[in-house]
Amino acid sequence: EVQLVESGGGLVQAGGSLRLSCAPSGFTFDDYAIGWIRQAPGKEREGVSCMSISDDSTYYADSVKGRFTISRDNAKSTAYLQMNSLKPEDTAIYYCTRCGIESGQMTWGSWGQGTQVIVSS
Questions:
Q1: What is the pLDDT of residue 119?
Q2: What is the mean pLDDT of the segment spanning 44-64?
Q3: For the segment 1-31, what is each residue's pLDDT rounded down to a tens digit?
Q4: Residue 22's Cα: distance from chain center in Å?
Q5: What pLDDT digit, counting tens, does each position of 65-105 carry?
Q6: Residues of the chain with pLDDT > 90: what percent?
Q7: Measured in whole angstroms, how far is the alpha carbon of residue 70 from the centre of its chain?
Q8: What pLDDT score was predicted for residue 117?
Q9: Alpha carbons 34 and 74: distance in angstroms, whole number
Q10: What is the C-alpha radius of gyration for the chain, rounded to an integer number of angstroms?
Q11: pLDDT computed for residue 91 by the predictor
């Protein structure tokens, strides 16, 4: 069974940083692109970032470019999202997901329980 377990969320002030981690199981980690989606209360789920298997292709939502950095360690079967210069608009539940990059857009499949990020103003 595919599982994606997120951690690292928390409450931070605007301008602060967090690093999210994703520990997948139930599939071969280095056979899939891995990324992050998020959903704020009352808003649509949106793709945040996706990274290819070999880190040769990445996607970032325009709203996070220059502030967030996705990475992966295939040896540890772990993916990360470094979030800097956080804004209140980044407040959401963040989910790790298998993903794809197609025609400049991010696609995704199932996700885990998520980790909550709250950015205070």
A1: 98
A2: 92
A3: 889 999 999 999 999 999 999 998 898 888 8
A4: 8
A5: 999 999 999 889 999 999 999 999 999 999 999 999 988 89
A6: 75
A7: 7
A8: 98
A9: 11
A10: 13
A11: 98
For 58, the token pair is: 């990445």
Does residue 29 sit in helix, strand or coil? Answer: helix
Residues in the chain: 121
Which token pair is 43?
């808003």
Q: Residue 22 is encoded by which pair of tokens?
A: 């994703």
Task: Enter the tokens of residue 101.
Answer: 């990059």
Q: Of 87, 100, 92, 103, which Cα lies nearest the Cα of 20? A: 92
Q: Which residues contact 7 (CB under 8 A, 6 or more apart)?
A: 20, 21, 23, 115
Closest CA to 4 of 35, 31, 30: 35
User: CB-hemisphere CA count at 13 Å for 105?
Assistant: 4
Find where tokens 């996607």 sit: 59
